[in-house]
Amino acid sequence: MKGWHVTESDSQGAIIQQILSEVELHLGGIYTLVTDELVGIDSHVEEVMTLLNSSSSIGKVVGIHGMGGLGKTTLSKVVYNKICTQFERFCFLEDVRETLTNSEGALSLQNKLISSILKKDNHQVSNVSEGINMIKERVCKHKVLIVIDDIDGRFEFDKIIGNLGDFSFDSRFMFTTRYMKLDEGNHFWMHDHIKDLGRAIVREEDIQHPYNRSRIWSTDDALDMFRNAKVKIFVEVLRVDVKSREHEKELKSVDFKDLLGLRYLEVRYGSIMGDFSQVLPNLCSLRLPHCESIPSDIYMKKLVVLDLKECNVKDNWRGWNRIKAAAKLKAVNLPQCSRLRKAPDLSTCTSLEFINFGSCRHMEGELHIGTFKNLKRLSLRWTNITELIIRGNDIGKFRRLEELDLTSTCLRELPTGMENLPSLKTLLLESGKSWEFLMEEIPRLPRSIKRLTISPPSRVPNLLELTELESLSYLRGNIPCIPQDLWLLCDYIETLVISYSPNLINLHGLENLIFLKNLYVGTCSVLERLPSVMNLIKLKLLVVYECPVLVEIQGLGGIGESLSRLLIGGCPSLANYDGFQLLGALEYLTFQEQSFCLHGNDSFPDLSGLFNLKQLKLRCCLELTELTGFERLMSLERFTMKECNSIRNLPDLSGHGKLKTLNIRFCDSLINLTGIERLVSLREIEIHDCNLITKLPNLSGLKNLELLNLSKCTALTEVQGVEGLESLTILQMGNCRSIKALGNLSGLKKLALLDIEGCTKLTKVNGLEELDGLRYMDMGKRMRVKYLAKSAARYGKGLLSGSLSNW
C-alpha cells in the first residue's frame, strides 16, 4: 500500500479501520475460503491444476459438473487457494445461481468482481452495461483467476463478465454447475477427470463400506452393497452399469428395499424385477437406459427426471399411468425406444421442460403439447409424428422454448408463430421425405436463433435479421450454389456445415466469412474446389469428407496460427494441400480413405512443420507407403494407423517421448516397429492383425504401460520384456499362433486380464498362480489343466475361462 496522508483532525480509529479494510481487500481472497472438511483429496487436486495450467485455449476455462453435494465447490476452493497467488488478481464468486434470482443479481456479481480485482471497494457501477465496460477496460488488463461457483442457464458470461477473448491469454476461469449443457458459445468445457475427482471425494466418506456413503458411482461398490444386509439409509445417489456382467444383470426389488433416502437411481443394461410399490419413496431421478425389463409400479409422484433411453418399454406399459401423478416431472428422455407406436400421454405433467422422442422410428400420430407452458427443449427427430396439437396451431406461446428439433419428421406442416419465440436458440429443420415440398419457405424466425439447420431450397425470409446466429447448416439440398444472403452473415457466423448437396458446384463467397471458427464440407459429389481459406484467420476446425472430385484446398498457410483440428476423408482426388507445412498450431489430424500414391500427384503431405501435433489418425489409406516428416512430430501423444495396407516400415519412434498411445491395426504389409522400447510415456500399445511382424523390441523399460494388445499377429514369435511391465493391467495376445514362450509373469501384480487363447504353440505360462489381481483369463483348450485348477482354487468364481467378449 502507498503511504497514508493523515491530518490532526483524522480519528485514529477511523484510519485504522480504513487500513484494515484495504488489507482485507488484498488478503481476503487467499484466506477466507479455507475449508476444514477435506479428506484425502490433495492427490487429486493436482490434476485440476494441470488442466488450468494447459497452454492451449481449452485450459483457459474449466468446468466442474455434478449433482448437489458431490464436492464441486469444495474442490474449486482447494484449487483456488493453491493457485491464486500465481495470478496478479483473483476472485471467487459464490452462490451465483442464487444471486441471479434477484433482479439486481448480475449487477451485484459485477461489483463484487470489480472490487476484488481492482482492490478498491469504491469502484461500484450502477448498471450492467457500465460494468461490462469497466471490466473490459480495467479488469481484463490483469492476469486474473476467476472462480464462478454454482451457475445455471441464467448465467451468460458475455452479458455479465464480457467477452472471454478480451482477457489476457494467461487468465483462467473455473465454473461449477449442476447443469451439463450451458451456453456453448461461452466455451464451457468439462474434462472427464473432474467427474472422477468429485466422485473420489465422496468415496472417502467410507472406503470400506459403500452403504455408508451418500453417493455410489462404482458398480462394484453397488453390487457389494446389495449383498450386505445392513440398512443403507445414507445412500442418496446410486449408479449401476451391468453391461459386461452377464450373470449380474437381474436386480430385484429386495435389493432396493432399505434405500429409503435414495433420490437418484441409474441402472444401465439391467433387468429390474419385483414389486416396487413399497420401495424408493423419495425417488426424484430415474434413469434406466438400455434396460430389458422395467417395473411399472415404481413410486413416481416425486419424480423430476425420467430417462428410458433405448428400453423395451411399450405403449401398454402400466407405468405411463403412474407418471401422470408426477406433478414435478421436468424431463422425459425416451430416444430410440423402438417399440413405442405412439407418444405417451404426458398432458398432466404440466411442469415438463424437456421432451426427447428422438429416433423412436415407429412412433406416429399426434403429439399434444398444449399444456407444457414451461417447455424448453423438444426433439421429434426421426419419428413419424404427423401433427403437433397446439391450440390455434400457434407455437409462439411457448415463451421459454430454447431448442426445437424437427429433423426428418413426418409433420404435415410447421406450426405458426415461430417468430414469437423469444428464447429459441436452436432450430433443426433438416427435411424428411414427407414434407420436402412444403419447405420452400420457412416461417419468419426469432432473432434469438443461434443454431439453425435447414435443407435447401428452403429459404428463411429474414435470415439477415438473425444477428445472434452462430451456427448454420445446409443439409440435403439440390442447389448448385449457396444463396448469396448467406455470405452476408460474415460479421457473426462461427460454424458452417454444408453436406449432402449432390449438385453443389462451388462455394464462392466462403472467403468472406472472416469470423468462421468451424467449417464442415461433406458429401458434395461434384464439388471440385474450395475457395481459398486464407482469410479465415479464426478458423479452428476444418472437416472435408466424401467429396470425390475435390482436387485442392487453397490457403492453408494463412490459417496456420489458428487451425487446431483438420479431418480429411473420402476425397481420393485431393492432391494439393496448399500451405499444409505451415499449420504450426495444428493439434489433431485425421486422414481417412485417401489414396496417397507415392509417385502420383496426391502424395502424402509433409508433416515436418506440425510441431504442435498431438494426435495423428490414418485410416484406410490403402496406397500410403511412407510418412514424410513423421520423425519431427515431437509433441505427438496418440498415433493411430488402421488398414494402411501398403506401408512396410514406420520411421524410428524413439524420438516421440510424449507418445502415450500407439494403435496399429490391419496393416498387412508392416514388417517391424523400431524405437518403441524407448517410449517411457507409453500407456497403451495395440498392434492388432499385423501378420508380417515377427518380433518386437524388448519392452521391459516401459514402466507406465497399462495395456498391451498384440492379438492376431500370427507371425509374432516372441515378445521380450513382458515380465518387467509392472503397471500392466491388460495383456491380450489371442491367436498369436507363432508365440512359443512368455517370460515369468509373477511380477505383474496389477494384471487383471490375460488373453492367450489361440496361442497354439504356447504350452505354459510361468508365475500365473502368484497374480493376486488376475480376474479374467482366456487360455484356450490346449493349455494345461493344472493352471486352471490352481487359479480356480486361488481366486474362485472371479476367474473366468472361455470368451472375453463380455469383459
From TrEMBL:
Location of the NB-ARC domain: 42-182
Residue runs in coiled coils: none
Cross-referenced Pfam families: NB-ARC (PF00931)
InterPro entries listed in its UniProt record: Disease_R_plants (IPR044974), LRR_dom_sf (IPR032675), NB-ARC (IPR002182), P-loop_NTPase (IPR027417)
Name assigned to this protein: NB-ARC domain-containing protein
GO function terms (MF aspect): ADP binding
GO terms, biological process: defense response
UniProt source species: Linum tenue
Biological classification of the source: Eukaryota, Viridiplantae, Streptophyta, Embryophyta, Tracheophyta
